[in-house]
Amino acid sequence: MLREIYEQPDALRRTINSYAAGKALDQKIAASLARWANPEGEVLIAASGSSRHSGLAAEITLEDLCGLAVDVEYASEYSCRGGSERRHPSVIVLSQSGETSDTLAALREARRRGHKTLAITNAAASTMAHEADISMPLAAGVERAVPATKSFTCQLAVLYLLALYEGARLKQIGDAALAAHMEALASLPGSIEGQLDAWREQCFKAAQKYRSAASFLYLARGVHYAIAREGALKLKESSYVHAEGYPAGELKHGPNALVSDAVPLVVLATVDRSLADSVLRYEKTVQLLHDLKVQGAKVIAIANAGDREVDGLVSDCIPVDSAPEHLLPISEVIPLQLFSYFMALEHGVDVDRPRNLSKAVVESSAGA
To answer: 324 near 272, Cβ under 8 Å?
Structure first.
């Protein structure tokens, strides 16, 4: 798992280069995606486990950058739903292996309903890649650890690229904005590479400090909520420590009763200062951190490098380099992966062989 966490910069470079022609989009891919797109701008994403969390991030990104209407379904639920469907969305299925049984069933159900399908997998020769109308494979390389790390961040990158393709096609993203998006995406692997060692040391120390915690609450807003969900899942499957992801604004609607010395919080408090909506979400998160400090809560925050305000409000602050709002999830999830890894070591868990879990393939629905 640790090796694959460190492989993410190279995995991201390979994946981005598969779909980008310098600072432009590959026009052959753009042409094939145009045949997949739904005229009404509706998209349905079906996935399980970590792949569903990348789908939740993509829901916000596709809606914000392209103006599409996106729903995200649990693959295991979508394939079992009956009744008539009046809508006719384009469907995306997400799976690391391309063989996840529930997601494969969802793909086949979508095809039965006559929907155009797109498979995003880490296996170009997989069943899903073969059966879908269009395949956008990752270039993450073989992922052997059960907890998804490099396949997850590469999924986020491909989904971001898909949003750029769709945004350009729908004329929601102009040429200058598209070039800026592509430049920011291309610079991300190098930025992550330069931060990995510091994150490793900070997460190692945090795991030692919080090893006795009984449970964690992971909080975030907007596109970052998906990463809170993913961080909580990583902690559960890697270290067997209970964790749940919530929208930050929902903490005081019940879950705050759980917060104690035994239940710390992990709060995603990054911000894109160039985007008004991101600043608003950040300000609301900072206000929550003020309240939590008064309450005496233990908080680990993921925040922009140099953010002294957040740093002064929390027990521990892990900085990430600034990036555009919809790219921040790719960076901010990696410290959460490392924290889960070191928490597993603190609990004596063989992180590469977690109990009751395996890479999900056709005969099992244990993961994604």
So the answer is: yes
Which pTM was predicted?
Answer: 0.94
Per DSSP, the three-state class of 113 is: coil
- Domain count for the chain: 2
48 and 165 share one domain: yes
pLDDT of residue 25: 79
Same domain, yes or no, for 96 and 178? yes
279: containing domain: 193-346
Q: How many CB atoms lie within 10 A of CB 35?
A: 9
Looking at residue 263, what DSSP letter applies?
Answer: B
Residues 314 and 301 sit within 8 Å (Cβ to Cβ): yes
pLDDT band at 364 (very low <50, low <70, confident <90, very high): very low
Task: Collect all residues with Cβ–Cβ distance below 8 Å to 18 and sequence separation of at least 6.
Answer: 137, 139
- What pLDDT digit, counting tens, does each position of 219-229 carry? 999 999 999 99
Residues 25 and 102 in one domain: yes
Those residues whose C-beta lies under 8 Å from the C-beta of residue 248, and which sit 6 or more positions away, are: 219, 220, 221, 225, 267, 284, 285, 288
Cβ-contact 9, 138 below 8 angstroms: no
**68: its two tokens:** 């599409």
Q: Which amino acid is at 186?
A: A
